[in-house]
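Worked Example 4.2. Consider the chain below.
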Amino acid sequence: MDRLRAEAVRARTEPLLVVDAQTHERAQRVMADPGDLVVTDERLRLVLLAAHPSLAPEAAAALTLRLVLGVSTADLARLFLVSKATMAARLTRARTKLVTAGVAFAVPEGEALAERVEVVATVAYLAFTAGYAPGSGPDVVRVDLAGEAIRLVRVLRTLVPYAVPRAAAADASAGDSPSPTAILDLLLALMLLQHSRRAARTSPDGDLVLLPDQDRSVWHRDEIDEGLSLMSPYRGDLPMQVLGRRARELLLQALIAACHATAPTAADTDWGRIVGLYGELETLTGSPVVRLNRAIAVAQTDGPEAGLALLAGLDEHLLSSHRLPAARAELLARTGRHDEARAAYERAIALCDNEAERTHLQRRLSGLG
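Applying the procedure from the previous section yields the following structure tokens:
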């Protein structure tokens, strides 16, 4: 039995020793030639390994978030708009596929690394979203998870100049090909613009503070400036063929975040611009979450009834999300339809597992009288 246990331990550790040896060898090469690529960041190495091309991007993202960043299966289900059982089955299939495919435990290099950039960027963005929209627990914001996602993108940006052939990096405009550089620049810009508001998102008592009520003096202006600077090369009238679909999607989201980040007060927010950007983003993605956000923006420009009209038909796509009934309840309350608003708030509370958000919804319900 002792011998069998020792063999089992050796079988588990040998791949790790191989990777460490390979990394050490690459490090020695980099000392001789700085143009050679080396991946030494441990968390990023694991993310790159999980983002294997044998897995669909959604499966790779879910597996990485669960195994590498520790996001719970329930929170993953909310992020991917599926049931917890469906997500658990998806994770099991992804693990099994990696094992049966005999995937080598090795860090990709060169063009192989470049091919995984978009998947890793998706993983980082989903991790950031999980940090700012925790599906469960007491936190309004999980700053550590969001900060880790930003760090991963920063590290990955330093690798791209070596991973992507220079000609491809300079011009990724063939067809709808993604530009790894643009994807990472715009993703980091979006994250920084959102992350800059973290200190204002909660009250001293830990309660949720919505954007219109936030103290803008505590926003991190240095991060806003960095985000705007990262966006600047892409803010012209570049066609989507130049950026690629994924980068165009990130640019639209970053532009929306910039509208909020640069408004001196809530009253100065350019809601007309935001409505237009959400319209472009919905056309590009067809996402029900984007439709929900566009409805909220339209309510600011054209009134709550117009916003409610856009929410129609979303229930079948966002069955497990508390944000749809919460948004509907808020708009119904503005129209004076308090009985319908009360029912919508009660449904939102029943679906919400985040303690801070549930407390906020209960207060809004009590405020109806």
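The mean pLDDT is 80. The longest strand covers residues 136-137. Compare this with Example 4.1 before moving on.
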